[in-house]
Design brief:
about 150 residues
């Protein structure tokens, strides 16, 4: 009497099936790309270069904005609000200026101009009403406490 032992384990078969499916997928993709090389090799026109510049400058504006948004909470909600909203508005200004520089649609260019004007006004308001830093608030209250004791 022979024991009933499977020839291959379930895990072995599963790994081999995944490996085969992956290999077939890569092979099929390679053949598909080899069949249509003209799609990527077309000559760039002036509008493609402009679009490339537009996308690059927009990506730069988004990256700068996102990097500036990475702030630590200060413990002051109003200060944190300004610290978050100011880079957001600056990013909107940068992206709108990119549209004004590269865009062709007059209505969108006018919208971009309005965005720049409004966001600049909002930034000026935020900067004018931004609470003092925690360090300067503490030192001024310390100064008041010292004067009260003298």
């Amino acid at each position: 009497m022979e024991p009933d032992v499977p020839l291959f384990s379930r895990g072995f078969v599963r790994r081999r099936a995944i490996s085969l499916a992956t290999s077939l997928s890569v092979t099929a993709t390679s053949f598909a790309l080899a069949q249509a090389p003209t799609h990527r090799s077309r000559i760039l026109t002036v509008s493609d270069v402009g679009e490339r510049q537009f996308l690059f400058e927009n990506d730069l504006a988004m990256s700068n904005m996102n990097r500036s948004l990475l702030t630590r909470p200060s413990g002051d909600i109003d200060r944190d609000f300004v610290d978050i909203m100011a880079p957001h508005h600056q990013g909107a200004i940068d992206m709108a200026r990119t549209e004004m520089k590269y865009g062709h649609n007059d209505a969108l260019r006018q919208l971009a101009e309005r965005i720049v004007r409004q966001a600049e006004q909002d930034l000026a308001c935020m900067r004018g009403t931004k609470p003092a830093t925690a360090g300067s608030t503490r030192s001024s209250s310390t100064d008041l406490d010292l004067r009260a004791h003298n």
